[in-house]
Amino acid sequence: MERFEFNYPAAKALPGRAEAGVVGSGDLEALYEPKAATELKIIVTTSVDGSHSLWQHFFDRLNALRELPAGRLDINDFGATPGVARLRIEQVFEEAENAN
Length: 100
Prior knowledge:
alpha/beta; Ribosomal Protein S5, domain 2
């Protein structure tokens, strides 16, 4: 298992906490916690050794495509494809946006 930490400039925090996905064969779990900050702290725990640069490029691209929310995003990965990773992250942000 490897663990990586990334920080990106962020807009305002989303209203609530959220989680999406499950850790299992070929899947990914994303957990978002809002924080009053100016950055999104991302912590990736993955079963895929040597994937730091892949995750770095993934989040660089995501940051270029959308405004990231302030807070903390925990990713627990068990070999998910980039498409599944993007889906889970978008799901967790959407759920947090709609939280009461």
